[in-house]
């Protein structure tokens, strides 16, 4: 059995803190909840955490400053709560090295899924953990920018991706030349799409191939692995 | 009565009236000038004729009656003057000369010195005049004989000088050109004002009118700008209010969502979460409406064809039941410059409407004149009644049938789409298709 992870929740609303703590504890996650930057620093020094959930809209010291401070302390995963639709906040946050963001008001289950996904990425494969310094990944002349969640073609033109396609491509790119099993992909796409997940993965992969101009029958970039799974066959440069 | 030829443009109307006035003034001036000129000519002719006829008479009168026919034959006469001696005035088919002309001739003749008072004619009759092109002067010599002189009369020529007409036409032409130019200049501010009002209708943040020029124009521009800034203020206040409410609602909605997770009854929890989802969508739409997309994003290039297909894919994933009625037709790649997140939102709103109200979304993309792209989104729904057509673009306006349906909209989809597209220099219009269903037509500069 996995050890219970300990996470630090920073949100200025007491009710949300309490409810979130209760909710996460029900899911067997240990929670320390604090209300602002000052308390967060104190809690940080007195505890050991596997992940931080940080509300960007804090009174006093801004969430972005706190995120910067946390980044200076360690490379602990950070999930940001951003103001819905405030894309600039989100982009700055991701550029600062947050691992994921959830717009507020968030769906508790989605937050939980994101926390678990980030924890898994951090725990299982330390080598592919989201690197805050990475502004983009370059593979076969394509560029994937995590901060803006966008894909640029060799001419620098954005090629739109659905949420699921983006998550899938990021996972493949972060683990280039390593096989991603169906189970891992299922985790990634869970909650993103309705309908049977199995089919959703195949559909997402075939759409990705189309967008990357990777011929489906003779795919060179995203290869199908016998026995179920996909691999991105390309050298990936971190920008 | 309707004037069919009466032009509609203020500039043309003003120019026409001014040119008409100018023409009248010119014709009047010309007439006065011509009459004047004719008077002068008449005077000169009368004097000339009088001198010639009188001196003729004097020569004959001084001559001995017996020698008169010889002298008469010898006398040098111009080609337009004939004279004869007779016992009476000649028979002519012309009446006597009109009095004013006749008086003029007589006065002039009486001024010619006759040498001796007793040589003066005892009687004189004058026939003809300008209408006949000649004049006959019959004079009774002191001894009773008559001397009848016929002279040709040159017609009066009001337009005698050739340069006069040229100068006159030139003057008229110059005046006409100046008039047209001045009128265009004068009416230009009206056109500017109309353009500014149009721009304001499309975008409240349109640049203000320049407040210079003649006083009246400047005053109108200032008034217009004041009105525009009041409207802007009003729109801003309203959006700020909406945004503030939207922000404030986030915390309670988050709390409610968390609380719902502690409800044991699965059905109730599901329903509450669905309600909250709807509430959140409303808040999110309100915030999106209040946001000025230009301030939030920079312009980058995006493959519009791929964006449209991605939107359709997303729509199909959310509604698998209509997935096979979501089609794309057009080039497989087409790059445009845009604020991509905003543009995506605008197009998503239109596609969502087509799917929600029309159960289909057939998207067509085409390039027009290399400068504009046209996106058409068609559906198979009921369309929109003509009365509703304009209103659906009003914020928070929802069509009658949709209001009762559980679609989760708040009536901001179309206003947001239009704001975003107009901020991109494009637009969106709606039309019912003859075959049924609605067609949304989006234009966007490349
Ligand atoms: N494709 C369509 N077919 C029929 N009616 C439509 C369509 N799109 C929009 N409408 C009407 O216009 C109204 C306003 O649309 P919108 O601004 O997107 O708000 P909402 O979808 O939230 O109601 C809708 O309520 C609906 O009555
Ligand atoms: Mg709508």
From TrEMBL, chain A:
GO molecular function: phosphorelay response regulator activity; transcription cis-regulatory region binding
Domain of life: Bacteria
OmpR/PhoB-type domain location: 134-234
Record's GO cellular component terms: cytosol; protein-DNA complex
Keyword Transcription regulation: yes
Keyword vocabulary terms for this entry: Cytoplasm, DNA-binding, Phosphoprotein, Transcription, Transcription regulation, Two-component regulatory system
One GO-annotated biological process of the protein: regulation of DNA-templated transcription
PROSITE patterns named in the record: OMPR_PHOB, RESPONSE_REGULATORY
UniProt DNA-binding residue ranges: 134-234
Protein localization: Cytoplasm
Gene3D superfamilies xrefs: 3.40.50.2300, 6.10.250.690, Winged helix-like DNA-binding domain superfamily/Winged helix DNA-binding domain (1.10.10.10)
Matches recorded under SMART domains: REC, Trans_reg_C
Alphabetical list of InterPro entries matching this protein: CheY-like_superfamily, OmpR/PhoB-type_DNA-bd, Sig_transdc_resp-reg_C-effctor, Sig_transdc_resp-reg_receiver, WalR-like, WH-like_DNA-bd_sf
Pfam families recorded: Response_reg (PF00072), Trans_reg_C (PF00486)
List of residues that carry 4-aspartylphosphate: 55
SUPFAM superfamilies to which the protein is assigned, alphabetical: C-terminal effector domain of the bipartite response regulators, CheY-like
Domain (Response regulatory) ranges: 6-119
Protein name: Regulatory protein VirG
Species name: Rhodopila globiformis
Lineage: Bacteria, Pseudomonadati, Pseudomonadota, Alphaproteobacteria, Acetobacterales
From TrEMBL, chain B:
Residue ranges constituting the HAMP domain according to the UniProt record: 184-236
Tagged with keyword rRNA-binding: no
The UniProt record lists the keyword Cell inner membrane: yes
Gene Ontology MF terms: ATP binding; phosphorelay sensor kinase activity
Reaction catalyzed: ATP + protein L-histidine = ADP + protein N-phospho-L-histidine
Domain Histidine kinase: 244-446
Membrane topology field: Multi-pass membrane protein
Transmembrane segments: 164-183
EC number: 2.7.13.3
UniProt xrefs under SMART domains: HAMP (SM00304), HATPase_c (SM00387), HisKA (SM00388)
UniProtKB keywords: ATP-binding, Cell inner membrane, Cell membrane, Kinase, Membrane, Nucleotide-binding, Phosphoprotein, Transferase, Transmembrane, Transmembrane helix, Two-component regulatory system
One term under GO cellular component: plasma membrane
Matching InterPro entries: 2C_sensor_his_kinase (IPR050980), HAMP_dom (IPR003660), HATPase_C_sf (IPR036890), HATPase_dom (IPR003594), His_kinase_dom (IPR005467), HisK_dim/P_dom (IPR003661), HisK_dim/P_sf (IPR036097), Sig_transdc_His_kin-like_C (IPR004358)
Intracellular or extracellular location(s): Cell inner membrane
Protein name: histidine kinase
Protein species of origin: Rhodopila globiformis
């Amino acid at each position: 059995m996995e050890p219970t992870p300990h996470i630090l929740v920073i949100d200025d609303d007491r009710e949300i803190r309490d409810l979130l703590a209760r909710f996460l504890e029900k899911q067997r996650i240990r929670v320390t909840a604090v209300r602002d930057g000052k308390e967060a620093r104190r809690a940080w020094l007195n505890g050991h955490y596997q992940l931080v959930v940080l509300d960007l809209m804090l009174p006093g010291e801004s969430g972005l400053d706190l995120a910067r401070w946390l980044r200076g302390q360690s490379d602990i995963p950070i999930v940001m709560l951003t103001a819905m639709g405030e894309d600039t906040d989100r982009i700055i946050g991701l550029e600062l090295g947050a691992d994921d963001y959830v717009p507020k008001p968030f769906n508790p289950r989605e937050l939980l899924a994101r926390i678990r996904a980030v924890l898994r990425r951090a725990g299982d494969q330390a080598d592919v953990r989201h690197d805050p310094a990475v502004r983009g990944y370059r593979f076969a002349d394509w560029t994937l920018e995590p901060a803006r969640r966008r894909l640029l073609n060799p001419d620098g033109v954005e090629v739109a991706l659905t949420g699921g396609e983006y998550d899938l491509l990021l996972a493949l790119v972060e683990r280039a030349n390593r096989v991603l099993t169906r189970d891992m992909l299922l985790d990634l796409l869970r909650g993103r799409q309705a309908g049977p997940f199995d089919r959703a993965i195949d559909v997402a992969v075939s759409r990705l191939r189309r967008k990357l101009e990777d011929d489906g029958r003779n795919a060179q970039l995203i290869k199908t692995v016998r026995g179920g799974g996909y691999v991105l066959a390309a050298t990936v440069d971190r920008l | 009565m309707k004037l069919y030829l009466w032009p509609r443009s203020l500039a043309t109307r003003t120019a026409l009236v001014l040119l008409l006035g100018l023409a009248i003034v010119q014709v009047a001036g010309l007439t006065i000038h011509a009459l004047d000129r004719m008077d002068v000519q008449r005077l000169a002719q009368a004097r000339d004729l009088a001198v010639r006829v009188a001196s003729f008479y004097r020569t004959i009168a001084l001559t001995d009656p017996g020698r008169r026919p010889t002298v008469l034959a010898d006398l040098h006469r111009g080609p337009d003057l004939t004279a004869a001696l007779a016992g009476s005035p000649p028979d002519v088919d012309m009446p006597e000369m009109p009095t004013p002309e006749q008086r003029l001739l007589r006065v002039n003749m009486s001024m010619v010195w006759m040498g001796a008072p007793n040589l003066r004619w005892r009687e004189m009759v004058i026939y003809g005049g300008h209408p006949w092109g000649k004049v006959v002067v019959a004079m009774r010599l002191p001894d009773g004989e008559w001397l009848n002189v016929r002279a040709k009369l040159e017609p009066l020529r009001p337009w005698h000088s050739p340069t006069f007409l040229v100068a006159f036409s030139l003057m008229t032409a110059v005046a006409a050109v100046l008039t047209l130019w001045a009128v265009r200049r004068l009416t230009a501010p009206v056109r500017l004002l109309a353009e500014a009002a149009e721009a304001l209708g499309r975008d409240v943040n349109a640049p203000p009118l320049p407040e210079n020029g003649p006083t009246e124009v400047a005053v109108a521009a200032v008034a217009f700008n004041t009105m525009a800034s009041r409207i802007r203020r009003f729109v801003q206040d309203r959006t700020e209010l909406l945004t503030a409410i939207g922000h404030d609602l986030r915390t309670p909605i988050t709390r409610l969502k968390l609380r719902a997770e502690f409800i044991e009854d699965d059905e109730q929890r599901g329903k509450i979460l669905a309600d909250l989802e709807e509430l959140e969508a409303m808040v999110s739409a309100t915030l999106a409406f209040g946001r000025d997309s230009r301030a939030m994003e920079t312009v980058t290039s995006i493959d519009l064809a791929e964006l449209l297909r991605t939107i359709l894919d997303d729509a199909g994933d959310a509604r698998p039941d209509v997935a096979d009625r979501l089609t794309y037709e057009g080039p497989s790649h087409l790059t445009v410059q845009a604020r991509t997140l905003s543009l995506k939102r605008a197009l998503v709103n239109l596609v969502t409407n087509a799917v929600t109200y029309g159960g289909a979304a057939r998207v067509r993309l085409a390039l027009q004149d290399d400068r504009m792209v046209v996106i058409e989104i068609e559906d198979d729904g009921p369309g929109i009644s003509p009365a509703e057509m304009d209103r659906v673009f009003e914020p928070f306006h929802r069509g009658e049938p949709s209001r009762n349906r559980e679609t989760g909209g708040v009536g901001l989809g179309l206003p947001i789409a239009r704001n975003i597209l107009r901020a991109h220099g494009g637009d969106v219009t709606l039309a019912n298709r003859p075959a049924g269903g609605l067609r949304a037509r989006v234009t966007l500069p490349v």
